[in-house]
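Handout, tutorial session.
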Amino acid sequence: MDLSVVSQEGEISHLKVKGRVTQRQLMSSTDVLVDRLGLEVYKGKVLLDMREAEFLDSSGVSWLLIAHKRFREQGGRFVLYAVAPMVLNVLRVLKMQLVFDLSDTYDEALKKVQGDPA
């Protein structure tokens, strides 16, 4: 998995994930979000572009759930958007669309973190 920072403006960070989101890719770091954005990441607002995520296994879902929980606990916001069809199917089978903030586009995701319930 390649997780890169696309942009940072104020408290809003825009990240992009590319490749397979699996245990093997997540083992290299204790917390890839902290590695990319610093210790205060969970107090901010993060938009995660998932259009190039090729695959998501149970450890990838677990990583997303843990991140989602940390954002909620620390007052931040985590929105996944443009989720690749295969990954979206995994999330739907697990009913994760009821848990995660999902948006179709960057603009919709941005409105959500700016306070618009879009």
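The second record follows below. Compare its token runs with those of the first.
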Amino acid sequence: MQFSRHLPILVAAVALIVVVIIFAVPPTVGRDWPAWTGLRGKTLWDFAELIVVPISLALIAYLFSATQRAEEREIARAQRQQDQDLADQRRHNDLEIASNREQEAALQSYLTVMTDLVLKQELRDRISTIAQARTFSVLSGLDGRRRAQVLRFLAGTRLIGAQETVVSLSGADLSNMPAEGINLTDCSLMGANLSNSRLNRCSLRNSDLRSCDLTNVDLSNADLFGADLRATTLDQTIFAGTLIYKADFSPPPERPHMSMAVQRNRAQRAEQEWLDNLGKARFNRARYDYSTKWPAGFKPSETGAINESD
């Protein structure tokens, strides 16, 4: 393809070389042009005006035209690419708008139905299972921002109270939430997936966070007074400036109905795994005191946590 495109240039160059050899060489070596050329008596400059200059001009014109055509092809290609990018962006925007509309409609429908059930005092009696199914269903189709709205609603209506849990969030997808400052006091989030959420400045006093996934969760400057964090995944969880008085970081409870030897082996393995899990959390500047429950062998002060017992 490249060779065929440059073939005219090669032919013109060869032709020019042949012309130069035939017509320019004789006078340069002191000989006259052959009679058949009709150039006897002519000077080299006359030859240039008659042959070389027109051919050179024609070659220059051709090269300029070829360059111009190549630039036009490149401009056309760039324009096609730009049009394609714009079309892709429009499709992406349309899909995003449609998705946002669907999510907002699903969220509003959920809130309307749940509010109606709460007001009718029916939720705590015969249809709490339906309410929980609707909650799980809507959470799976929402983005993080709208999940935070659902969580705020459930906490505000006391449907996830730690003492009386109407809607269990065990296994619920509450990841990627921008949920700064939400009041989750006395709430049960046991077993929920809260990974990659921002819960900084939240009140989680006396909350049940057992078996939660708090991977990469920002809990900086939150209030976790009396929170239960047993068996919670704490990989890269941020506790900077967090109040953790009376919080429970004890090892997970042992499983019953096992032989003493099995229980002992599993307990040792579980304790080490729990220490490794705590070691992945970021306790720098977390505030604790004598009431905070830590597993044996864990030294919070070595992680940057601040002991305010005195």
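Points raised in discussion: The chain has a mean pLDDT of 82.
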